[in-house]
Amino acid sequence: MIEVRFHGRGGQGAKIASRILGRSALLAGLYAQDFALFGAERRGAPVVSFTRLSETPIDQRGYIEEPDLVVVMDDSLLKEARAQVFHGVYAGTPVFINAAATCAAGDDAKERPAANFVFLDLSSIARGFMGRDFVSAAAAGVAAKCVPAISVDILAEAVRIEIAEFGLPEELIDKNAAAAREAYARTPRIPLCTRREPLRSLDVLPEPPPYLLSPQFTSPTILHRGSAALRNTGDWRMERPEIDLSQCKRCFLCYLYCPDAAIRLDSDNFPHIDYDHCKGCLICYEECPTDAITRRTEL
Fold first, then answer.
1. In the predicted model, is pLDDT for residue 134 greater than 80?
2. pTM of the prediction?
3. d(Cα 107, Cα 228) in Å, to the nearest integer?
């Protein structure tokens, strides 16, 4: 059995990538299982999705603890969610990162675990075919290349089946299929090593946290105020809103509708965006009555 884990952000299509890979396996005559786990369930939040492929019926369920292949659809997750991304990764695990090859020697290179890292710019592939960072089909193409039973034609057919379920126009379906083919062609075929040491079991259970033994607390309690401000949730963003103050009429709608209080007003009541915490939901863009707010792809 081959177990694949996709790590992405809400809106990037991690779940769709796992479904495309699962559909490809079914078309290739394999058994398949795919599912996703969501955190904050909002655009930009970390998401993990799973696909299991096998020549025999799959009787396992639950989280993939030790993946045979990892596809990271946003390289910022290597810092923000590194514990989740690298969980169960061992020396021979192929880890495909959506980033330019020049990022291989990044600042965090020494902190990465011993694994078989491959850097491939899936975002540029998606933008080249669709003009947007919809990398789900390309990410599925990366994983499919490592499964010998899945040919590029089977992959393209799976993309068409899964994307068509969203009711998208035929032209966009074809562009997703082309992006998957391009990613498949650019991806090196890396043999998967599925034999590894089993997970170690704990001989002694750890001590329970003190608050669980006290009637004073019924659940973990956070006493520090304003801790959300310490986390740069702007890393979740795939598109950014930009305000042209020359067209702004100071109606305050962007300020009022922002769900994360990421817009402040200056002394003249003009709005300004806190990009450290703006998640890129683009509600402000949708609500602006004067079109003073535009959207731009985050590069």
1. yes
2. 0.70
3. 25
